[in-house]
Amino acid sequence: MCKLIYLRIIFFSIKLFRMNYKFSFFSFLLILTFFGCKETQVDTNLDLSSDIIVDCNSNLTDALVERHFTPPVAAKNYAYSNIALYSATSPFFTELNTLNGQIKDFNCEVYPDTAETYNLEVVALNSFSSVALKMVYSDTVISNFLEARLAGYKATLDPSIYDRSIEYSDDVAKYVLSWADGDNYKETRNFEEFSPGEAYEEWKPTSPDYMPAIEPFWGTIRTLVLDSSNQYMPIRPTTVDMTEGATFYNETMEVLYAVDTIDEERNEIALFWDCNPNISHHHGHVMYFLQKISPGGHWIHIATQALDNKQMNFSKGAAVMTTLGIGLHDAFVACWEEKYYSNYVRPETVIRANINEDWKPILQTPAFPEYPSGHSVASASAATILTDLLGENFDFIDSTELKYGLPVREFSSFRDASDEAAISRLYGGIHYMPAITEGVKLGNNVGDLVNGKIKLLK
User: What angle do CA 440, 83, 445 make, to 5 degrees?
Assistant: First the structure.
């Protein structure tokens, strides 16, 4: 369009020149000013695929797994990195809305120069990875990935385009990082250590490591869409009472029975959805951590598989991953607020104290209170968001856990997968049933709110 305008200007000016030299010179300047092109130029087809988005999120997952980032912190890192990518690239697409004003305190006023040319893949790669690197600190997984990819672009692109793309995306990343500084994360690093309650019904550290509580103050982290971390407070958990026939007694026996009678299929389901990045293994006096993806990371991978399988274009892919990241972030803030508010005892503690002191769950009990189930909240939220964006009957083969030694599983929809993720916590022996059902309700509420408030696709 711009080239056509300039050609018409030149043609018109030549005609004027033949009539009057002085008039043609000043009219030429005037016409250039009036018809100055306002379209941002990119040297990449705007219909490019979402491959770079998939690669960036996969690399971030590798870094988070290697460093054993906890589930809520991992969710924050996915959200902020995808927000940076979206904010840097959305101005290039007429079908995308700005993220400004859609999440709390966010107003990025860094824009590309409409008269200049950019490489969109460099912009996406550098904005995402620059934020991810700061979120993960001095991490070689991300830095090596970023340096290698950028070296390839630098070797083939016009130097001015490459430099301009880097400078612009650096500026967007700087804004996102400055905005991130206001989320209360750094402040929570200095809060007093959380002390487990002494009352019987309160959470206690569990075997084999008796780890301290993970992120006890995560409920104070700034939400992105939720009005507050307790906007959708679940009903109170069941009163702890091990009198035979009491509701809590029956819920405890349900967990015990699920573990003691588990079959091969349910065991596979429990292991597939374990997603505990802080699990440890012990051999004699040697202890090591087993690499596993977080619940949020599992759903990020499900989404990137969807992008790959449907060969989704860049703009749709950026909208999907950013919306999902926002939803996962708020789901974990809301879940962790309730976890440490109710501070509810785990099945392992109750069963060992009252029924069998040698009893062990299928999965290692995570180091935080029981109610509600974090995977149930995160999975329901993710499934609600992905269903809204990609459709109700979206069948897929989930290969997320192949990398960690587990087989693929097939699902007929995102809801099908999230329901299985939720019930896996009972099969694994780490949650009572109310934590699962109420967790699903909380996740659905968060997902519905995100779908109602975040509108990235026009």
Answer: 20
